[in-house]
Amino acid sequence: MVSPLGLVRPIAIPTVGDDRGALSAVEAGQTIPFPIRRVFYMHHMTAERGGHAHRDTDQLVVCVAGSLRLDLTDGTDTVSHRLDDPAQGLFIPAMVFIDIRDIAPGTVCLVLASTHYDMGRSIRSYADYLAAVDPS
Question: How many domains does the chain fold into?
Fold first, then answer.
């Protein structure tokens, strides 16, 4: 079985630019491999975020301003990704535990999700996550 961590990957967001600036667009089924059911963004962040996994939600995370680091784990391996380019997103499949760290002042982070929000879809502690991925 492939770890969900192995499915994490950068996704280039199609961007066009001219002397007026740049325009980047994400399209479900074109840019990202899932339908978009929810869009949210985090801003004015004063502390680390995350500390959870989503049972059945795929996400595209884009740092549209500033920078941050995503620490991702499958309970065995951990990878870190620095996001600082609004034309580059990170695809994160379901069942990857996420921590958001090293958030620069003024950062705005956009997330496109495959499901509507439901607290019951989230695993809110690392201990519960470990139990879910290794129920033995």
Answer: 1
pTM: 0.94
- 97, burial (CB in 10 Å: exposed 0-12, middle 13-18, buried 19+): buried
| Residues of the domain holding 68 | 4-133
The CATH number that applies at residue 93 is 2.60.120.10
Per-residue model confidence as pLDDT tens for the chain (136 residues): 678 999 999 999 999 999 999 999 999 989 999 999 999 999 999 889 999 999 999 999 999 999 999 999 999 999 999 999 999 999 999 999 999 999 999 999 999 999 999 989 899 999 999 999 986 6
